[in-house]
Amino acid sequence: MHLGISIDLKSSNTYTEEEFLEKTLMLTREFGGWLINEGVLEDSIKNRKFQIIDDVYYVEVDVMTVFSASYTSNGDVNIEFYIN
């Protein structure tokens, strides 16, 4: 059994990597804060505890949480995470 969230933002804005990471944290807090440890997520983003594989950012949260985020050059942001 898994409990998870998918957040998709369609936008015409373009983001730098830093803006994308800030937007990822903000959207996760707004729509998924009830499910994830926001402090750990913020620390992982701030300290760059993530891997980028095929333009997808896999962020270290904890052993039970799988967190990934990506963005496109036209401004779309996709965030997915679930608890095992």
Task: Walk me through what this model shows.
- With 84 residues, the protein is an alpha+beta fold.
- It contains 2 helices and 5 strands, in the order E-H-H-E-E-E-E.
- The chain has a 5-stranded antiparallel beta sheet with strand order 1-5-4-3-2, with helices on one face.
- The longest helix is centred in the first third of the chain and has 16 residues, at 17-32.
- The chain is globular and about 35 Å long.
- The protein starts with a strand and ends with a strand.
- The model has no long low-confidence stretch (mean pLDDT 94).
List the topology elements.
Blueprint lengths: L2 E7 L7 H16 L5 H9 L3 E4 L2 E7 L2 E7 L5 E7 L1
Short description:
The protein is an alpha+beta fold and 84 residues long. 30% of the residues lie in helices and 38% in strands.
The helix count comes to: 2
Distance between the termini: 7 Å
How helical, in percent, are the residues?
25-40%
Could you give the order of strands across the largest sheet? 1-5-4-3-2
Gross morphology: globular
Uncertain residue ranges: none
Return Rg in Å.
12 Å
* Residues in β-strands, percent: 35-45%
Kindly name the structural category.
Answer: alpha+beta
The H-and-E topology, N to C, reads as EHHEEEE
**Major beta sheet summary:** 5 strands, antiparallel
Mean pLDDT: 94
DSSP strand count: 5
